User: Fold these one by one.
Assistant:
Number 1:
Amino acid sequence: MAPTSARAAAPRLATVESATARSIGPRFRSLALALTTLTALAQAGAVPASAADVPAAAGNTDTPLWRATHGLLLGITRADTRLIAVGNAGVVLLSDDEGNSWRIAKTPTDELLAAVVFPTPKEGWIAGQDELILHSTDAGETWTQQYIKADADQTLFTIISIAPNHLFTSGAYDLILETQDGATWKESKIDNLDDDYHLNCATARGNDVLVTGESGHAFIRYAGAWTPMKMDYDGSQFACLTGSDGTFYSFGLRGSAFKAAAGSPKWTRIDLATQESTFGATNLADGKMALVGSNGSMRLLDPASGHVTALPQVSEKALSAVAEGKNGKLIVVGEDGVHLVDTAAMGTAGVGQ
């Protein structure tokens, strides 16, 4: 089956003709430069033999769990001591030992799952294909469907918590969904924005919300009203964070990176000293930011000094999201599943910029 929306899929999915590829297409329209092999993997159900660092017993690679931990994963977060990762075909993975072992949670869907958030240790939400919202009240063990628009061909790319029951998610074609009570979702769009633009990332600072997307577009919502704040760059932005001092950060195509202090009307460029695109980012306990992206790139950014450290690759495939583990470890997910990264053991192997 060809993708139902040519404009969403054209840059990268011209040769894909499978139902699985249709579900992935909108999520990666903007990531064409880095994920050219993704649809072939999804269509064939194949993964590289050296894909991940998660142990697998010899001769036991043709199991649902092995395929899940070595297949396409797009989001990861923590719920207290538990890690929750989400990805293709409705997969939700749980780990209670810092990513060393995983198990598959029960979900009511086989849709692509793109992002996950847990405002509390027990209650969390997942966003995905066809405007799907899943909800859990037991730390991710089981999930129920809260919202879906079947055959909408619109994927939700990001989901954040503004308050415990105040959730915000955005995605393809200027799509926004929001709930104030953790259950009732309302759809909206940003005024005067072409519907062809995707809203790839969102982050919050108190009640202020930043969304970033294609062609350097960014919008900040103050007191319920969206204010455009375009970057001096026409490439897409995929990842965003709020720093400890309230500064907004945005990361995207070809190493592009920007910051905007609270109250500032302008973005300031950050030099990451790379042409690799950034697809995922997270704040670390020591004040640094972990960035992951195309061709297995991983970097640590110190917002205070602007210093960037490039970490050695654990994969040559695209990495989509990262969570902090214990004792300097990172748990990274992407095109070829889960990777455990010990930044402390890497020592000075990274290249400081």
Note: The helical segments are 6-9, 19-24, 38-44, 64-70, 343-346.
Number 2:
Amino acid sequence: MATPSPTPRQAPPLSDQVEFGPGISVSPWLARSTLLRHAVFAIVGAVALGVISVSLGAYRDFQMATVAANVVAVAGLTVLIGLSGQISIGNGAFMAVGGYVAALLFIHLHWPLELIIVAATVAAALVGAIFGIAAARLRGPYLAGATLMLAVALPFFATRFSGVLGGDQGLGFFITVPGFLGVNFSLSRWQAWLSCGCGLIALLLLANLVRSRVGRSWRAVRDDEVAAALAGINVARMQILAFIVSAACAGLGGVLLAIVVGTVSPGLFTLSLSIQLLTAAVLGGLGSLAGAIWGGVLLVLAPTYLQDVVVSHGFASQTTSSSIPIVAYGVVLIVVMLIFPRGIQGGLSRLAGPIIRRNDDAPAAPTPGDDPRAVLTRGDDPPRSPRERTSWRRRSPAADRKEKGRR
């Protein structure tokens, strides 16, 4: 007697929504495409930033552009430290490379601005590759010392070759508003739009890179280099690649910062800038691009806000207010590390964890057309993750009876 074949399991319709958290749901085709999902988020962010910029004044546009430049540099640093496990205190030097190359191309070759940005980013990446090859055998404090030496030594090239790099006065880098925006469009708003646009593109590329095989290899190298090598990963190549990506982001941040400030000088890329970038990466949360955004915002807004508060209340004079940013970084770092040891983004994820788990534990509402007697093939428990939720399969009670009869 032939055994009847079981009823085939039907996949859920494509119209079902995949939830990513409380109140956040997207279609399965969008959830499966990492590049498309990140592109949608970037477009939404660009529209939001454009609307915000229109309603702000010139000074707030300047702050927004500065935040975007610092976010790009901090994002590269958090990928280097948080994902590949390498310590760097010299990313301010790579920002200087990008800024000076952009200024030289602008002054002597008169290239278009978009080509200048790309060329300066590539130049910083090449310098990062050279330094990464030289420092591939260094670990821990030795690697940190080598990057610290780079941050201290590189600005002195401006003084040594003052005829080309402008010495202490630096080089001018003044851009104009494109003609298609009209004569009444403000330069500060154009700088904000340009910086935010480049920052969103950089974050989009980094977000896809850390979700790719390269990002997984970086995590494997960070966790255990020996195990990663046994798994077939070229550890040295991955570490050099991390330096290249981090240096490219720093170079792009240096170009954007030079565009906002209007000049490139040794005083713009000091050792304190490298330390501030490292502080921002730790404050935001190492290994998290969202943490890089938090760190970039704090890097620009926190010292200015605290300085205004202290001076307005008479706690410090105008002469002593220059040391307030240093104190502000120390206070913010101590407070954040005490409250959120894994950074701001790590703390927010920990606080939102119970809410997300409670939302996932709730039984799913039946969709129209579903059989009310249908049961889950994986048991009565609801799925715990988006991957499990997209892999639900339903079957009828008749199919269950047939399977029990075969047993």
Note: Confidence is low (pLDDT under 50) at residues 8-24, 364-383, 388-395.
Number 3:
Amino acid sequence: MKTATVVEVLDGRSLRLRTDAILIIEGLRIPEKGTEGAKKSKQKLEELVLKKKVSYEATTWDAMGRTNAKIFLDDLDIKEAMEAFLKTL
């Protein structure tokens, strides 16, 4: 598993690493862009990972060069944490 620091959260499921790579949380579905739910999911992801070192395992890449990945902060699975949060919206 690789590690890197998150320098920007792009939306509720995408983030930019210090290496300039963009990771997308594999399999996470978020509210439609422009909605209050989308805004809240981005804020939650920022709380969880912004300026923190995460571990990730790349699973696939898309045509735009973004990496779908399983992302962890210590032992916390970020996908699971975000899915639990999204259920509260």
Note: The chain is about 25% helix and 40% strand.
